[in-house]
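Q: Entry one of two.
A:
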Amino acid sequence: MEFSTIPYDRSIDRKAFDCGLHPALNAYIAQQATQDEKRNVSRTFMLVEDGQLLGYNTLANASVVEMTESGRLVLDSTTSTRGALNDDAI
């Protein structure tokens, strides 16, 4: 099993994702990320293994000050890091 970090891919199943922390984080990737990508409001990167979404990180543009704001890395609650979340994965 190999982890990969890929740019947002709407073909990855996002509905089953559950970080176990906050429903809004689950709802964002399932319902809002596609719209934000289309509008160029943010860029989301997905941590996947065998086509399954294990986590995501979103970078959002702060248009007023024209800077990039780093979002938080959100992991699925069933994900065990197993030492695999190193700098390359994040």
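Q: Entry two of two.
A:
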Amino acid sequence: MARGVTITARDSAGATLTNYVGTISISTSSGHGDWSLASGSGTFAAGAADSGTATYTFVTGDAGVVSLSLANTHADDLTISVNNSSASVTSGSSAFFEGFFDYAAEDDFFAASS
């Protein structure tokens, strides 16, 4: 079962950076999962199968927001990390049990410098 994750570029005040362009790296702490692009105008690249990794390059048409899906078949507790050249953000803990994803933290995260 895939779960949606929305990643939003924000400034230090929490406002969405609607003009953000740049590449982010996404990973899971367990090293498990398959990412896919749900919606976004930029370039998405999934990592190796079941690696929990991906990259996404924001373009101006994204207005600072991208929606991804994460599928994981392992029973894992994991966190999601998002990094770019100037910021790194880690989500709260999420749990995968028998293919069910219970996301216990806010789905919307990522701070970038303006």
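A: Comment on entry two: The chain has one domain: 2-111. The domain at 2-111 is CATH 2.60.40 (Immunoglobulin-like).
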